[in-house]
Amino acid sequence: MGKDWKGAKDFVGLEEVTKVEFLVMLFAEALGTFLLVLIGCASCITWNTDSPPTVVHIAFTFGLAVASLAHVLGPVSGCHVNPAVSVGLLVSGNCSFLKALCYIVCQCCGAIAGSAVLKVLIPTEITARGLGATNLGASITDGQGIFMEAIVTFLLVLVVHAVTDPKRTDTRGWAPLAIGLAISVSHMAAVPVTGSSMNPARTLGPAVILGEWKNLWVYWVGPLLGAFVAGAVYKMAFRRKKEDDEASYDF
């Protein structure tokens, strides 16, 4: 009975979120997602119609942005900066329910703020061409979009688990690079299909500022589904033993 109570208590995480230090973690998540959306979406904007941003350009911008943020914010909050990552870590037992919920709220707020600031920084005639919003490619159905988003997010969350696993000493020091590369290669594959969100907050930000809600649900269902499966797969198949240490980018 005592063990079950402790497990339920750890899952909810009430004690964790009532600490003063948790406010710093929430700020780190909001700031990280703010910067990710601002910088990442800026790379998607077409300044010259004769020379739009390439897939490689966008892929490396997002990948390097996350890798940079992981170095700074990883030891502070784990640098999830993505609701899908928080959900994946919740499923695998590496993040409490209340912590994941609070993180997701802050991530969404940070993403919306990032898009708002980007809109202010870019001339109106340029933002009229887009604000880095993700859209399904030509002839891509909702089902195909969900499946693609689930696959690339599955890869991302699986990599996050591997490089933050306290039992994996071989990956120590490589977390930011590994995660950044996973994001980059996923963008190279998925940008023509879905715009490669992999991050519901990243899609929510531009959607709110532009007031365009079409297919927004695809970019929540797909990544969250992929994250859920990745968290479950890693917990059941790839992690050797249950660890009490919470996964983070602290290396």
TrEMBL record:
<dbReference type="InterPro" id="IPR023271">
    <property type="entry name" value="Aquaporin-like"/>
</dbReference>
<keyword id="KW-0813">Transport</keyword>
<feature type="transmembrane region" description="Helical">
    <location>
        <begin position="22"/>
        <end position="47"/>
    </location>
</feature>
<comment type="subunit">
    <text>Homotetramer.</text>
</comment>
<feature type="transmembrane region" description="Helical">
    <location>
        <begin position="216"/>
        <end position="234"/>
    </location>
</feature>
<protein>
    <recommendedName>
        <fullName>Aquaporin AQPAn.G</fullName>
    </recommendedName>
</protein>
<keyword id="KW-0472">Membrane</keyword>
<dbReference type="InterPro" id="IPR000425">
    <property type="entry name" value="MIP"/>
</dbReference>
<keyword id="KW-1133">Transmembrane helix</keyword>
<keyword id="KW-0812">Transmembrane</keyword>
<feature type="transmembrane region" description="Helical">
    <location>
        <begin position="145"/>
        <end position="163"/>
    </location>
</feature>
<keyword id="KW-0677">Repeat</keyword>
<feature type="transmembrane region" description="Helical">
    <location>
        <begin position="54"/>
        <end position="73"/>
    </location>
</feature>
<feature type="transmembrane region" description="Helical">
    <location>
        <begin position="175"/>
        <end position="196"/>
    </location>
</feature>
<comment type="similarity">
    <text>Belongs to the MIP/aquaporin (TC 1.A.8) family.</text>
</comment>
<dbReference type="InterPro" id="IPR034294">
    <property type="entry name" value="Aquaporin_transptr"/>
</dbReference>
<dbReference type="InterPro" id="IPR022357">
    <property type="entry name" value="MIP_CS"/>
</dbReference>
<dbReference type="Pfam" id="PF00230">
    <property type="entry name" value="MIP"/>
</dbReference>
